[in-house]
Design goal:
The complex is a heterodimer of chains A (313) and B (443). Chain A has helices at 21-38, 62-74, 95-105, 119-124, 142-156, 174-185, 214-218, 231-235, 242-249, 253-256, 279-282, 289-309, and strands at 52-57, 78-83, 109-114, 130-136, 163-167, 189-193, 209-210, 223-226, 264-266. Chain A is α/β, with parallel strands linked by helices. Chain B is globular. The chains are: A alpha/beta (313), B alpha/beta (443). Chain B: Catalyzes the reversible cyclization of carbamoyl aspartate to dihydroorotate.
Chain lengths: 313, 443
């Protein structure tokens, strides 16, 4: 491994709010070195042999779950999936009870995805295992932001001095929150823009700058990140229609041309084609949406390694 | 049976009394208040160095019986009240079934009498079944002893229903207490809308959710000429609306809780469900406005909104946790330590908000020391330092954000109708028969 001490400042990975710049660098460096394993024919190293990781998914997310599962498997950890369909999770067992059960099983790490903000923090108070937040409500999604940062760092060589534009439904976006903390800690400026009804109050206190409109946010940006919108938000009247959304807040070739010529286009996926991003640029040369997926596995390997394997090495 | 309460500094804001006096209690009533009383054959309780006030009144508590006895019942709630220095409490009707008819009012009264501790005044529902559709049988409930009406826990969302309720209740000279919250603006809310809700990714409750309803109630009170009482005011905007209404002569009274006066939304950081309340904890600016409102008389009452929940209802994910905290046993200590102690109100003003203030808001004959009237008395040790320990609460509820707080000032003796219903372990007087008090409170 690159670097010296591989122990993070936090026991768990609940978010990037409390992560230090050094933690982030350490995770990114480790992930970079793990990426090579993914390209091997035999994708398996014995690093986490004998360690057990539970994927506790209260919200369906095949992408993130699979990514964590593969990450664990590539490092030879035993990974168990515990998802909301058909398990006791659905039978109304409380998160506290589930935590007790996990505690009895002697699990090393729990990866949790939950619809309640703070669920990962709650779990961390009830288990001695390391807790990795794989998305809690509308709070944080740290590994997504880390994979975004890894993707950008690989393309650009650094993460400082950039203008990063995060666009769309900021209010409900855990990805946005984690990315704001992450990119600002690494020395970049983060601008947010989107419908006023989807802009959280006092977000500037988190370190983001609120742009007047989409164009101002994108203008001269090095990184352009569109967020997924959800139809239920329309039903709640937070924006009037998908058609108007795509017209006012969608990113097309013309809008992207306001950014730097070598700007990168990111999206946490899955993309509503033609709504948040036009098909043309999604498949265009600036899009790194596919690279993000690969970075995801590497980041999750790094996080697992640093939390449950790192200290032992 | 005669008792002489000797040597306390007597503070009765209603009578503008603040001086050392002896009080003679005969057959449960106050028989005399003099500089010095010496009568042979009387039990003398030495209260030198302590403060004696009219029995404290909390006009907003939830005792959960019937239906939710696992959270609290009328007896444990009464014991909690006595330990907090309260001699009278008014309890909200959002039980299961709710207190929306005379029989239920009688039930609450009989359970309170059986526990025989503090005076428990039932509040009846505004609407049948708390459904917010038709007004409940208020006349019947008044005859049975309902002291006020409220759908607390829920707002009276339908403005037409609120208007009718105000007019109807005024015939019986009873007040409507409204939990002000626009359901549409509240929708799914968890914490105050602002930086903390953004940081934690929790659905925010805007100040306007409360203020629009406060404004509506003021308009209805002005139009109907009847009085409305606003429960647990939490925002600067609400205070301003009420201040202006009062200046215009609109009949409106209101209350603030000790937790809204001492905590801000910051208490929620870390997803502490013990800081989850409705209305939510607000900002520093709101807290300052509440203090200003107390000082200038805009806010008439301090009430705890004592809302016990079981541990299982609080030790869950934040958005799944119940709203509310227990308050009866921390209320006085918080006010003495953080409001009076920090010079935000003087002692007399604070006691006023906990005695005659609520008595007037409810329209009951209490909250002052009167010869010939029942000896409902609270004795306070202003210098007693103590630590809030949720595990020692008399309430069944352990849901408090104040666990571990060090406070100065506490009720050490509570007397209802001349009977001692609580005596703190720190009060040292051989004339207080602890065994007897214990028997009374645990019978
Ligand atoms: Zn209420």
């Amino acid at each position: 491994m690159r670097g010296g001490n591989t122990v993070l400042s936090q026991k768990h990975l609940l978010g990037l709010e409390k992560a230090t710049k050094r933690d982030i660098e350490q995770i990114l460096d480790t992930a970079e070195s793990f990426k090579e394993i993914i390209d091997r024919d035999v994708k398996k190293v014995p690093t986490l042999r004998g360690k057990s990781v539970v994927n506790l998914f209260y919200e369906p997310s095949t992408r993130t779950r699979t990514s964590f599962e593969l990450a664990g498997k590539y490092l030879s950890a035993d990974t168990i999936n515990f998802s909301s369909s058909g398990s006791s999770v659905q039978k109304g067992e409380s998160l506290k009870d589930t935590a007790k059960t996990l505690e009895m099983m002697g699990i090393d790490a729990v990866v949790i995805r939950h619809s309640s903000s703070g669920a990962a923090e709650f779990l961390s108070r009830h288990v001695s295992a390391k807790v990795i937040n794989a998305g809690d409500g509308t709070h944080e999604h740290p590994t997504q932001a880390l994979l975004d940062m890894l993707t950008v760092r690989e393309k650009k060589g650094t993460l400082s001095g950039f203008k990063v534009a995060i666009l769309g439904d900021i209010l409900h976006s855990r990805v946005a929150r984690s990315n704001i903390f992450g990119f600002t800690k690494m020395g970049s400026e983060v601008y947010v823009a989107g419908p006023q009804t989807l802009m959280p109050r006092e977000i500037e206190k988190m370190g983001a700058k609120v742009a007047k409109n989409m164009d101002e946010a994108i203008d001269g940006a090095d990184v352009v990140m569109a967020l997924r919108i959800q139809l239920e938000r329309q039903k709640k009247g937070l924006f009037p229609s998908q058609r108007e959304y795509s017209r006012l807040f969608g990113i097309d070739k013309k809008r992207l041309s306001l950014a730097k010529p070598d700007a990168l286009l990111l999206h946490p996926g899955p993309v509503n084609r033609g709504v948040e991003i036009s098909s043309e640029i999604m498949d265009g040369s600036q899009s790194v949406i596919n690279e993000q997926v690969k970075s995801g596995v590497a980041i999750r390997m790094a996080v697992l390694y640093l939390l449950i394997g790192g200290a032992r090495q | 049976m005669k008792k002489i309460l000797k040597g306390a500094r007597v503070i009765d804001p209603n009578r503008k009394v603040d001086e050392v006096r002896d009080i003679l209690v005969v057959d449960g009533s106050i028989a005399a208040m003099e500089k010095k009383i010496n009568i042979s054959g009387a039990q003398v309780i030495d209260l030198t160095g302590l403060i004696l006030t009219p029995g404290l009144i909390d006009m907003h508590v939830h005792f959960r019986e019937p239906g939710y006895e696992y959270k609290e019942d009328i007896e444990t709630g009464s014991r909690s009240a006595a330990a907090g220095g309260f001699t009278t409490v008014a309890c909200m009707p959002n039980t299961k079934p709710p207190v929306d008819n005379a029989m239920m009012v009688e039930y609450v009264k009989s359970r309170a009498l059986k526990s025989g501790l503090v005076r428990v005044l039932p509040i009846g529902c505004v609407s049948k079944g708390l459904e917010g559709k038709e007004i409940a049988e208020m006349g019947d409930m008044v005859e049975a002893g309902a002291v006020a009406f409220s759908d607390d826990g829920r707002p009276v969302a339908d403005s037409s229903l609120m208007r009718k309720a105000l007019m109807y209740a005024s015939m019986f000279d009873r007040v409507i207490i409204d939990h002000c919250e626009d359901p549409g603006l509240f929708e799914g809310g968890q914490v105050n809308e602002g930086y903390i809700s953004t940081l934690l990714g929790l659905q925010g409750i805007p100040a306007s959710a409360e203020e629009t309803m406060v404004a509506r109630n003021i308009l209805l009170a002005r139009e109907t000429g009847t009085r409305v009482h606003i429960a647990h005011v939490s925002t600067k905007g609400s205070v301003e609306l009420i201040r202006r209404a009062k200046a215009e002569g609109v009949k409106v009274t209101c209350e603030a809780t000790p937790h809204h006066l001492t905590l801000t939304e910051e208490a929620v950081v870390g997803y502490d469900t013990n800081a989850k309340m409705n209305p939510p904890l607000r900002t520093k600016e709101d807290v300052e406005a509440l203090l200003e409102g107390l000082k200038d008389g805009t806010i008439d009452v301090i009430a705890s909104d004592h809302a016990p929940h079981s541990i299982d209802e609080k030790d869950v994910e934040f958005d799944k946790a119940s709203f509310g905290i227990v308050g009866l046993e921390t209320s006085l200590g918080l006010i003495l330590n953080h409001i009076v102690g920090e010079g935000k109100l003087n002692l007399g003003q604070a006691i006023e908000k906990m005695t005659i203030g609520p008595a007037r808001a409810l329209g009951i004959d209490a909250g002052s020391l009167t010869i010939g009237k029942p000896a409902d008395i609270t004795v306070i040790d202003p210098d007693l330092e103590w630590t809030v320990d949720k595990n020692k609460f008399f309430s069944k509820g352990r849901n408090t954000p104040f666990h571990g707080w060090k406070l100065k000032g506490k009720a050490v003796l509570t007397m209802v109708g001349g009977k001692i219903v609580y005596a703190d372990e720190n009060i040292s007087d051989d004339n207080i028969n602890r065994a007897e008090i214990l028997k009374a409170s645990y019978k």
